[in-house]
TrEMBL record, chain B:
Residue intervals of the tRNA (guanine(10)-N(2))-methyltransferase TRMT11 N-terminal domain: 2-197
PANTHER family from the UniProt entry: RNA METHYLASE-RELATED (PTHR13370), TRNA (GUANINE(10)-N2)-METHYLTRANSFERASE HOMOLOG (PTHR13370:SF3)
Protein name: tRNA (guanine(10)-N(2))-methyltransferase
Biological processes per GO annotation: methylation; tRNA processing
EC category: transferase
Amino acid sequence: MRLLTHNMLSSNIKGLTSGFPLGIEVEKTEEKEVEMNADFLRNMFAKVEWKALVEAAKTLGYTELPDNVEPSMLDSDEFLRRFHHALLELHLEEGALVCPETGRKFPVNKGIPNMLLHEDEILLQ
Amino acid sequence: MWYLCVFYHRLLEYRKAEFESLAGLFEGCSGATHLQWRLPEDHHPDSPFHFVNLPSEETARFIANRMVVIEMDAFVGILVKGIYEIWGEGRSFEELEEAVRIYPDERKTLYLSSGTTFRITVECFGKAISFPEQNERIQKLAFVPFQVPLLQGRVNLRNPDHNFCLIDNDDYGDKNGLPPASQRRIFFGREVGASNRKILQTYQLKSRKYLGPTAMDAEMAFLMANQAQVKPGKLVYDPFVGTGSILIGAAHFGAMTMGADIDIRVVRDGRGPDCNIRSNFKQYGLPMPVSLLRADNNLPPWRADLKEMFDAVICDPPYGVRAGGRKSGGRKLLKGAVDPYTVPDDKRVGHIPSTAPYSLVECVHDLLDLAAKMLVMGGRLVYFYPVMRDEDSPDPTFPEHPCFESVATCEQILSFRYSRVLLTMVKVAPYTEEIESTARLRHLEFKENHLKWLEDGNLHSAVFSPADVTGEKLSSKPKYRGKYV
C-alpha cells in the first residue's frame, strides 16, 4: 500500500467525528523504485493532505519531506524527487491502518488494505 | 478536410463513438465531439466506408495511428482500419481516372516526388482477391503520374514513405450480411494512417495469466479506454476491478491505474503468488497499479473532503446476471430477520463481514455518486449497462445525473434476450453539497427498501428464465448484428 492510498483513506465507522488520518502499524515495509511522472505529481500535490503525508512517511522511516510546502517548490527537482519517493515508492506490505478515534484496525496484507466495515459499524438508519 | 475512413466490420455502434472520442482527445476537447460524416453514394449506413470531415491531417493520423510521446506500440483507433485522403472515386476506372486528373496537383506532387518511395495496396471489402487480380487493377492506375520522368517515385513494398490504396467495392459477397452495394464504387487515395491491431493479439485473454469469469476482453478494454480519452499521466479508477482486465487496457495507453473490489480473494490473493492482478500487469511489462484495495463501493473508504481525484472512472459493474454484486451489511440484518448485533471482541480479528446482495439500481446510483464526486471536471465515466432486448418495450432510458452529460451509447448484443450498452458520460457540473445530501438520502432509502430493490431489479431471472411460448422473433436488427458485430 502506497502513501498516496493512505492519504485518501479514512475510517468511515458510524458516528465518528473524523476517521482521517489513519494511524499506521508497521510490520513489514518495502521500497520499490518506479518511474517519475512530473505532471502526475503536480496533479497529486494539489489533492494531497500534506501533514498526513509527512507523518505517514515518518512512520515508514522516511524523514526527508519538508513540514511546510508551497506550490513553488514543485519547480525544484529535488523536492519532486522526495515527494515522488514518499508518495509512490514506499510500501506498507504487512501491518494495519488504525482508526484515530476508536483504535479499530484495518489490516493490510500483501500490500492490500482491507477497508470493509463490520456489520455493527454500519449506520442502519 | 474530408477523408475516407475505413472501419472494421464489427462492433458497429462503437466505431464512430471511438473515432469521435479520439478526435476530441487530440483536440483537447473533453466534451462530446460531433464530427461531420457522409456516406459514399449507394452505400448502406452499416458499411465500413464513411467520409469524415477532420480539421487537419494530424488529427487523422493521430486517430488512425496515434503518435505518443513515450515509447510504446503505435496505438490505433481499434476499430479503424485506415484513413485515406481520397484523390478520386467513381463507378468505373474511367470515372476514377477523370476524378484523379482533376484533383489538385499541389496535393498530388507532394507525395510523388523523386526520392520518395511508395506502394499500392488493393483492397476489396468482403472478399479476398488474388495477386494477379490485384496487379491487374494496379496496372489500370497508369494515369496516376507515378512514373513521370521528373517525378519518379520508387516502389518499396516493405517500408514505403507513402502508401496508396485502391479500394474496390465491386461485390461484397453475402457473407457479412450487408445488402449488396447497388453500384460498384472504386476509391483511390493516399493512406494517412492505418491500424495496427497487433496489440489485440498481445493482450488476448487466451494467454492472460489471471482470469475471472467476467474479465473484459482486450479489444473492449481498449475501446473503453479510448472512450474515456485515456492518455499518459491520467489517473483511472475501476471500483469493480476484479482481475484488472479493464485497467490493463488503460495502463497500455499510459494511464496510472487504481482499483478496488469487495472480494478480497480476487484483489489480494488471486490464485497464487504468480497468478493475480499484479502478475497480469507484469506479464505485459505494464507499470503496477498505483493502488489496489478491498472496499465496498456502497460504503467507500475515502476521506470526506476528497474529491476530483480521477481523470476517468472505467468499469463493468456487476449486474447480477453472471456475477452478483455484493455490498456491506449482513443479508439477514438488512432484511430485518436478525436484530442488529455486535461482533464479539474476541472474534473481531479475522472476522469476515457478511455481505448482502447489491441490486443494479443501487449499484449504478452509487457509481454515479462516486464518479460525480471523484472525477475532475471534464473527466469521463465509462461503464456498461445491461438492457433487456424486447421489441415491445420503449427505448431504454439510461441513468442520469445532474453532474453528467451523456456523450455516447453503444450497444453490443450478447444474447437473444439481452445486450449491454457502453455508456460514456462527461462531468460538466461540480458536485455540490445539495447533490451530496440528496445522494445520502437515497442511500438510506435503499437500505430501508432493501427487499423491494432486489425483487424489481432482478435481471438474472429475466435472462435465464425459460423462453416465452409465443416464439416471436425478438430481433428487429438485421442478422449480422450478432455478438461481435
